[in-house]
């Protein structure tokens, strides 16, 4: 690939980017797109949007970038949560380290590479091959290879220092976030799975007895998990409809457009009519309560429960200690956030999980290797000669310079990009099958899978298939890998540069444009006549964006010393990404749950992996160039980097696994002294209600003190619990409720048809 | 190698074995060797040994085998502890599985292998090459390979079933052993390391404040760890001498030989004289107590302490929960047994440990590879042709059949064996440098290192260097390994058979003979005129014996289907081993500390590794023989075996890491109800006294309730603690004690010279 082709590609991409960003700056000002571009604001701030017509609405402006960058870290923390801050920190880290690398490599190494061979071979710069700017152009046993080695040292050292301070500050932020945030029910709650089945007593009695006996001083109450059947699903859907109707009344958004009358699109009735039915339905529920749903309850109960404790420390201890001598029974974990619970996985038997985990792992690996097919095809495109040999009829078309440049410089990345779109949903599916108990756990697991997938398929397969026919041959001889990589990476550097241009820049444009939401919103609003639904604001797709940013980091590190020409393009990507991601986190996405920066260790480890990979490739290059001194120093560098990683793991990683006794106890004491504890404890039970909030009364049980349980009274008390109408007795009462809801819908429908 | 050579080798070994075992049965009856062959009985049972002269004493008899086999498992458990039972279980497991394998393979596979080629090629059986009995003799694409595959299935399936029940029963035994054993101080004690240094308060105050604040309800007291200097070491040695003198009076062993007068060999004085000095020394200590050793104490304190808790559960919780938000500070672990504490490692700063662990790991790997040199040489011996080419002058000697048979059949194993003797001490040294806090931890770590070392150097290097010139080439192409192994293992089977004969059988003979102890005992007693010292009974060398048994298991599994001729020899080894190890555990070795069967997971994992390796090699063989059906079935088998291992890990392994809340709390309640708790708690402090038992008064501190600490009184109370003469104030008072002890020795010496 020539400089000319690169410039063509860059030109196309810069043009497209500018076009999309201008388009975005116009589109975001249209009131119709508020729900697309300001979803979070609508949902969380209930802000009204002025709908004044002005010419300004149709003039593109970069003011949104300025606005996005004005927010401080504290503001972002309070708006979008710690996860968002950690993600932005990753982008900032990338900007910092690649600025350093760009200065060092572009001014130090690029001239060395270019003038590595005798000058007479050089053509005019625009038609110069890009390979002339890589380390491949440096002479064998060159005296100047120590400069490359020094640059590698500077980059590695700066990266380690920056990483260390990032890890330290994020660990600190996690702690502060945890201690300063308002009391969270999840800190007091433990998810118990693998409750042993017994014929004598139902699960709920077993849980109560176990925790009263072994954690009597700190056990508060518990909430069983119920298995959701078909009827339940129908009912949940019915309730969703119901909620939407209710929302129409409650919301104050868009009041100016359709004041006072909330016409239901389905039936045309006003909300008042509906209000009537709501009361009716409530009444009917109250009337038709039956006391004896014992046998049904037992059938549907799962071997899982949320157990509530009096203090954070007690919950933390209960979640970490082995409960029973059979490790498959009474398995305890800290419960996820109430909003974060992945209810449909909770009923899975704990014994199944290990096999599910292995199964999905194997499935992911198979998927990863099947993906070789399109990648190999794409790879073929960038080597045009091979393509022409295979498809001789293309010769005529490919002879035209522009087409040829387009095919080599642009098409491969686009095709690869299209195939890559199916990866995140697939990995999310695998992760859901794995059986995580929280949405965030599922997303983090998918993030890891997508990360491995991306690095393997974009980096390794492209690099290795460029130089060897079969990748499998290379995997089977690890000793050869450094040399193979060293030969291939500089050669594939041009592909990576175009990849940054197309995939990187384009992904940011498409992210900011939200093309899919925009089209969907248009159809929903103007074709189906739907309404904005503030409840359906998406969460930030960490499982696609984190792997993407980390992949570009990997490309940056591996190419920085070998082919520094990639660095300016990468810097532009990260700078643009900084503005775009800030904007999106502040305006578009909603943070429904929070992991407290749990993704940072993954980011840290991947960055260290990238560094070590870059060093190993450099080692291979120095080996090929027969520079033993540089090789020796690089080996030392690899060892030092690995030691640094191990130190960070020892020093910081445990903080990301659990909180310390010291912090937990101090928070407990503080709450105890301020008298807030009672209030917090009363909120635990409602928070972990399996069924939607408006049926909250179903879950409200009195908090039982351990004094309730003594001698004969306890057994009678338990029986009473079951016949108690307000206990979580899902099936009968809930079925009735569902039927009444459906009957409302039928009535509404009838009314409409009568009219 | 021919059958003839094998029989020669077997003959030599059977002869040697019989000789050694007969010699042992005579030697053990000699009263002079009591301390060599009945060390444990002497030390623990204080049994007297009858010294009646009879002819019976000089007649070899196998009665010791009968005696050793008479004990039940319960008796061994009570005598030698759970670790010994677990080790014997491993031997029993090996006997069972290799009995099954021998029946299946010798009757099913051996004839198939032998008649695999056309009969005309066969010579007379005694001069038949051993290769004729391996799978190498089976024709390509033979119809009979499914029998091999079936045999592999039977062996693998039996092994998994046996392993499952062993794991289950050992996990159960561990639990029973833990709950039924008398209260152990280590269950109530937590070892804290990484106590933060502060200029304001000494470590002991920091520990007290921290645990009173965060574990106030369960914290009992603590005991600082002191750094041992040169003077302390001299003093400890002096005290050891003192203890030996004291022991001479207390012991009732050997009373009939030298009744009433215990003459000290050093000075000739009677024990009465000594008794006088002992009182004197006690007096002098009491007299010269000085009150103010504050500054000295502070200097020598380490950032480590034993913290005692009121209940087992509290200690277990404190050891598992992260204490401070900096994971390098306040690091807690359950304390080892008092007898098991490795005092000289306790003062190591916790921050150093991770780098020490990495360092020793690297050192072990380097040591493993350096060992290639002698192994390659040994390997050369078994392939005589190569040797003759290299050293032409040997041709004359080697032409003699007997010498040739000796060199190929016997010498290689002997040389390898001699080199292998230096491995366990080296690994013990590495493990000590790693910084474990207990002797058992050090031994287990050394056991793992020796295991990896043995498997690598005895199995892999021998196998691979037999077929490829450089091992490193093979490591670098993992895809080739199954094929290479498949080619090499049947070829090296003869070496492994001789290895079982020489190394296996000989190791048992030497184990039972205790040659080194015997010689040392002889010299000590009859040349230097020393006395039996019951305190110096050795502990069982798990770090050499477990890897040895596991290695033979590995050889058995890998060769069973390919070269079944090894199985009878192996069975003899395990049967003999069963008798020998029982005998040694019952009579010779003392169990000073107990890990509760912590080695079983290692044994289980290694056995599964051996199984999978055997299956992979079989896979390679089926591949070479072009039997795709057998290959397919073997792949399934590998996956099933790995799944089985994962299931066992999930189901049983957590029990070996910590005990469950349920068990701990029930034990606590039981002790509480029986009123034993007070008594147990009072014994905690003396148990973890850093300095020898007779100076116990130094460590006796009153147990402080949390009520002691309130307001101003606490600070004064602490000062008092330091000036208290009975507090662990090592330096001055102990120095005085040492000096007085030395002066006693000098006096005794003077007395003698006067006489």
UniProtKB/TrEMBL annotation, chains A, B:
Q: Where are the transmembrane segments?
A: 6-27, 86-110, 144-165, 361-382, 402-423, 450-469, 549-581, 602-624, 630-648
Task: Alphabetically list the UniProt keywords.
Answer: Ion channel, Ion transport, Membrane, Transmembrane, Transmembrane helix, Transport
Which residues does the UniProt record annotate as the domain CSC1/OSCA1-like 7TM region? 356-622
Pinpoint the CSC1/OSCA1-like N-terminal transmembrane domain residues.
5-166
Which domain of life does the protein's organism represent?
Eukaryota
Q: Which GO molecular function annotations are given, in alphabetical order?
A: calcium-activated cation channel activity
Q: Chief localization class? A: membrane
Checking Pfam families in the record gives:
PHM7_cyt, RSN1_7TM, RSN1_TM
Q: Give the membrane topology.
A: Multi-pass membrane protein
The CSC1/OSCA1-like cytosolic domain extends over 187-345
Family named by the database record: Belongs to the CSC1 (TC 1.A.17) family.
**Protein name according to UniProt:** CSC1-like protein RXW8
The gene that this protein is the product of is: LOC103713672
């Amino acid at each position: 690939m020539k400089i000319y082709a690169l410039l063509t590609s860059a030109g196309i991409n810069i043009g497209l980017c500018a076009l999309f960003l201008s388009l975005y700056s116009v589109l975001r000002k249209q009131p119709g797109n508020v729900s697309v571009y300001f979803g979070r604001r609508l949902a969380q701030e209930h802000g009204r949007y002025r709908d004044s017509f002005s010419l300004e609405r149709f003039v593109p402006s970069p003011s949104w970038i300025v606005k996005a960058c004005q927010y401080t870290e504290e503001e972002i923390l309070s708006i979008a949560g710690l996860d968002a801050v950690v993600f932005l920190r990753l982008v900032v880290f990338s900007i910092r380290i690649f600025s350093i690398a760009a200065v060092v490599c572009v001014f130090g190494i690029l001239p060395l590479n270019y003038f590595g061979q005798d000058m007479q071979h050089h053509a005019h710069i625009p038609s110069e091959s890009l390979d002339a700017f890589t380390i491949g152009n440096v002479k064998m046993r060159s005296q100047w290879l120590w400069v490359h080695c020094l640059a590698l040292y500077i980059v590695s050292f700066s990266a380690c220092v920056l990483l260390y301070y990032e890890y330290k500050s994020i660990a600190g932020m996690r702690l502060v976030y945890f201690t300063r945030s308002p009391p969270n029910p999840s800190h007091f709650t433990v998810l118990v799975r693998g409750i042993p089945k017994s014929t004598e007593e139902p699960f709920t009695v077993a849980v109560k007895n176990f925790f009263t006996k072994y954690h009597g001083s700190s056990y508060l109450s518990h909430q069983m998990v119920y298995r959701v059947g078909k009827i339940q699903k129908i009912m949940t859907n019915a309730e969703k409809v119901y909620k939407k109707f209710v929302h129409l009344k409650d919301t104050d958004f868009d009041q100016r457009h359709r004041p006072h009358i909330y016409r239901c699109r389905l039936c045309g009735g006003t909300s008042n009519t509906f209000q009537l039915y709501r009361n009716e339905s409530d009444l009917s529920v109250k009337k038709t309560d039956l006391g004896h749903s014992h046998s049904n309850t037992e059938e549907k109960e799962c071997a899982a429960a949320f157990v509530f404790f009096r203090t954070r420390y007690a919950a933390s201890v209960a979640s970490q200690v082995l409960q029973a001598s059979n490790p498959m029974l009474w398995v305890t974990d800290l419960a996820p956030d109430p909003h974060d619970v992945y209810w449909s996985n909770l009923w899975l038997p704990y014994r199944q999980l290990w096999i599910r985990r292995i199964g999905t792992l194997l499935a992911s690996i198979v998927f990863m290797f099947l993906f070789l097919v399109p990648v190999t095809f794409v790879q073929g495109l960038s080597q045009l000669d091979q393509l022409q040999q295979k498809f001789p009829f293309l010769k005529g078309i490919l002879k035209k310079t522009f087409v040829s440049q387009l095919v080599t410089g642009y098409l491969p990345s686009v095709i690869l990009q299209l195939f890559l779109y199916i990866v995140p949903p697939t990995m999310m599916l695998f992760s859901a099958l794995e059986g995580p108990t929280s949405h965030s756990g599922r997303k983090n697991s998918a993030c890891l899978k997508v990360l491995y997938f991306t690095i393997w398929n974009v980096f390794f397969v492209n690099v290795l298939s460029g130089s060897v026919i079969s990748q499998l041959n290379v995997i089977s001889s690890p000793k050869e890998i450094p040399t193979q990589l060293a030969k291939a990476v500089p050669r594939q550097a041009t592909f990576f540069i175009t990849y940054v241009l197309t995939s990187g820049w384009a992904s940011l444009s498409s992210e900011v444009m939200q093309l899919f939401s925009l089209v969907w919103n248009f159809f929903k609003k103007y074709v189906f006549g739907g309404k904005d639904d503030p409840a359906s604001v998406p969460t930030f797709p960490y499982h696609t964006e984190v792997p993407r940013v980390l992949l570009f980091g990997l490309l940056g590190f591996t190419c920085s010393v070998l082919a520094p020409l990639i660095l300016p393009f990468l810097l532009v990507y990260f700078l643009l990404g900084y503005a775009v991601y800030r904007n999106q986190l502040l305006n578009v996405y909603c943070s429904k749950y929070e992991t407290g920066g749990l993704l940072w260790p993954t980011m840290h480890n991947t960055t260290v992996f990238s560094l070590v990979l870059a060093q190993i490739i450099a080692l291979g290059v120095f080996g090929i160039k027969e520079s033993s001194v540089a090789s020796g120093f690089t080996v030392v560098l690899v060892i030092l980097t690995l030691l640094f990683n191990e130190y960070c793991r020892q020093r910081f990683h445990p903080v990301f696994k659990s909180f310390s006794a010291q912090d937990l106890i101090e928070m407990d004491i503080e709450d105890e002294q301020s008298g807030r504890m009672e209030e917090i404890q009363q909120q635990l039970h409602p928070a972990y209600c399996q069924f939607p909030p408006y049926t909250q009364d179903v879950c409200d049980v009195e908090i039982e003190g351990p004094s309730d349980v003594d001698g004969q009274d306890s057994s009678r008390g338990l029986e009473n619990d079951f016949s108690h109408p307000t206990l979580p007795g899902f099936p009968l009462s809930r079925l009735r409720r569902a039927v009444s809801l459906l009957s409302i819908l039928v009535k509404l429908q009838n009314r409409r048809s009568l009219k």
